[in-house]
Amino acid sequence: MPGVKEAMLARRSSSKVTDAAPSPAQVAAAVEAAGQLADHSGLRPWRVIEMRADGISRLGRGLAEADGAKEKDVEKFVAKAHRAPLVLAIVVSYAPKHKVPKWEQEAVAAGVAHNLSLVLDDEGWGVFWRTGEHTRAKAVKKAHRLGKNEELLGWLYVGGVPPRGRKPRGKGRIRVSEHLSTL
């Protein structure tokens, strides 16, 4: 059975996915696994918002509003948001006035996002992580119904892997010597 390292080395973003998607129970199990990570003080300063159909349309309208799109262009944003049947919004929920700095709380939420993408990829789903200039716009925050101490990190778009199979990663593996040094 392949291990974690093999799953990480095999992971790739799937920018095109089919209409198949994990069930809510499968998403819940993936989130449970993804949440098992290093977390200073055990704050769990994150949450995931599962969006399908109408929720994804709401995301698209929020992005259109943040962009200042004219009414005739709103549907373009909605269509773009629907490039996968499931969108998982990754949210950092800051513990205000806590000894753990905000950047560290955000790092935990980003770790959950990455773990979640690994779990879903390992289970055979196509996954890609999106962010952009409007990720933290007021209209987008409102569309996600975020609280006062919350910020959006981005979205995991999830769907089936197209029948043609997976293409090899274009970037290839990292050059370890460029990213690992000794002190």
UniProtKB/TrEMBL annotation:
<dbReference type="Pfam" id="PF00881">
    <property type="entry name" value="Nitroreductase"/>
</dbReference>
<feature type="binding site" description="in other chain">
    <location>
        <begin position="11"/>
        <end position="13"/>
    </location>
    <ligand>
        <name>FMN</name>
    </ligand>
</feature>
<keyword id="KW-0560">Oxidoreductase</keyword>
<dbReference type="InterPro" id="IPR052530">
    <property type="entry name" value="NAD(P)H_nitroreductase"/>
</dbReference>
<dbReference type="GO" id="GO:0016491">
    <property type="term" value="F:oxidoreductase activity"/>
</dbReference>
<keyword id="KW-0520">NAD</keyword>
<keyword id="KW-0521">NADP</keyword>
<dbReference type="InterPro" id="IPR026021">
    <property type="entry name" value="YdjA-like"/>
</dbReference>
<dbReference type="InterPro" id="IPR000415">
    <property type="entry name" value="Nitroreductase-like"/>
</dbReference>
<keyword id="KW-0285">Flavoprotein</keyword>
<dbReference type="InterPro" id="IPR029479">
    <property type="entry name" value="Nitroreductase"/>
</dbReference>
<feature type="binding site" description="in other chain">
    <location>
        <begin position="129"/>
        <end position="131"/>
    </location>
    <ligand>
        <name>FMN</name>
    </ligand>
</feature>
<feature type="binding site">
    <location>
        <position position="40"/>
    </location>
    <ligand>
        <name>FMN</name>
    </ligand>
</feature>
<feature type="domain" description="Nitroreductase">
    <location>
        <begin position="10"/>
        <end position="159"/>
    </location>
</feature>
<protein>
    <recommendedName>
        <fullName>Putative NAD(P)H nitroreductase</fullName>
        <ecNumber>1.-.-.-</ecNumber>
    </recommendedName>
</protein>
<keyword id="KW-0288">FMN</keyword>
<comment type="similarity">
    <text>Belongs to the nitroreductase family.</text>
</comment>
